[in-house]
Amino acid sequence: MNGNAGQISVIIPALNEEEPIAAVVRDCLTTGLAGEVIVVDNGSTDRTAERASEAGARVVREPMPGYGRACAAGVRALSPGCDTVVFLDGDGSDCPELMAQLVEPIQRGERDFVIGSRTRGERERGSMNFQQVFAGRIAGLLLRLLYGVRYTDMCPFRAIRRDELEKLGMKETTYGWNLEMQMRAARARLRILEVPVNHRCRTGGESKVSGTLRGTFVAGARIIATLFRVAFER
């Protein structure tokens, strides 16, 4: 890595992740890469915030619901010395031990945005449902047609240069946040890399997306709306 590289900050949006959150925070810190771990409590009714703080995270509260709102709150809370931002989920399904694969190309000055692909990595049985895999493939095809960039997933595990993230003008407040970032990064002609990452079943709590039919439908609707909004905005 570049010896003059700045701090790597990890942002973890979390809603009722009391069971897995402490292990996720500890795994991020154990990598030795994260200068800070920010857990954004998005209105939890359990002890998510307390467990995250005990594990070494700085907890930020965003009471207004919305995955994108939580991510944006984490960005606003970044320390001044941060130059690389990592996002991952707080349910234990992402693999922080693979963080180096995402941040090293950025820290070396070779890439601006590195996103994990669960569909190209090793997936634990049951960790992704068919709808998630299919949606990632379809979104990737559409974005390739729009921008000429190859994506195979909308994986939440990703890293991006802070200055480039702040230039993207992110607006999405819901589950369309990840897709919006990928679209805006492609349109801005950032140097993008997709790398295979492993994916596990969540280690606690209930999925807000794939855990229920309603959650899957709502998330899918928001992703589709985001796709059209960003694609046709001037």
Q: Keyphrases for this structure?
A:
single chain, 234 residues, globular
Order of helices and strands: EHEHEHEHEHEHHEH
Instruction: Kindly estimate the percentage of residues that lie in beta strands according to DSSP.
Output: 15-25%
> Mean pLDDT, rounded to whole units?
91
Number of strands: 7
- Strands of the widest sheet, in order across it, are 3-2-1-4-6-5-7
Q: What's the overall geometry?
A: globular
Q: Report helical residue fraction.
A: 25-40%
Low-confidence stretches: none
Counting DSSP H or I runs of 4 or more residues, the number of helices is: 8
Structural class: alpha/beta
Radius of gyration computed on alpha carbons: 16 Å
N→C terminal distance: 38 Å
Largest sheet: 7 strands, mixed
How does this structure look, described?
- With 234 residues, this protein is α/β, with parallel strands linked by helices.
- It is 40% helix and 17% strand.
- The chain contains eight helices and seven strands; from the N terminus they run E-H-E-H-E-H-E-H-E-H-E-H-H-E-H.
- Strands 3-2-1-4-6-5-7 form a seven-stranded mixed beta sheet, sandwiched between helices.
- Helix 1 runs parallel beside helix 2.
- The longest helix has 20 residues, at 213-232.
- It is globular and about 45 Å long.
- The model has no long low-confidence stretch (mean pLDDT 91).
